[in-house]
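Working notes for the structural subgroup meeting. M.R. asked for a predicted model of this chain before we commit to crystallization trials. I am recording the input and output together here so anyone reviewing the notebook later can reproduce the run.

Input as submitted:
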Amino acid sequence: MFIIDHHKMRTMAAVPPRSITAADLCREGRAFFVGGTLPVRETLETMFESDCAASTDIFVVTMGGHESFRHGLEMVKLIKKNFSTRLMVRLDYPVQEQLCGQIYAAGADMADIAGAVPEGKRPGHADDDSQWAFCRAARSAFPRWSVASTLTIDGHSSKQQMRLADDLLQMGIVPLPRLRWDGTAETEKEGCAVLNYLVKAWRQHKVPIKPFTPLIGIASPLVQAEKPGALRTLFDRLHDRRQLAASDLLRHLRVSPPTDSLDSAEL
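Returned structure, recorded in token form:
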């Protein structure tokens, strides 16, 4: 259950969350952001050092442009091979379904198709092909509720943003809030209305939102209503381990030929 931290909301209005690029390597809270264009070996060494100092809930690899896609894919493969942590790939530009499938097969547990959703356009329209088709391609490549799309909340066009959130949820895509608010009282009500609507919509659609919690806390003023105690945190971590193991098994079954699966099971 999430609620709006209004003090945090005003702080974020004054100092908005910074945009992460494919050339950045940084840690924010329990999320570690990795640029997909960075040198692989040196980046992995830094990640090991940081992870030893403080545990990480999620790695987010921001892919570079088409020209560096293969390099970013290699980064994803090696992170998955060397870390037992949830891994998300962030794409700022549309790619074909085949490439979405390659990202999933490389080891990504989730995808964030940031900036992919067309403003003011709904799926099914004749002019939606490039961006909504990207949403459908990502959703086809990844399991249900493993794809997210960033929804920028600025205190304007609240009804349109709510409709957009509904469209994404109907497709099995998680709308993730990002606050870009000017701090004025006139738009505060609109922004809060969208945030509260998102929380309600996640619950209505039974979205397993916990894997996205670190990112929600970084980009929005939404916070958990109750902080878990030490015992609950331990159980959550054990549950996360089981989920990751199940995710890896599902990936193997989805991307491996049936004969390979039978051979590995000695059938």
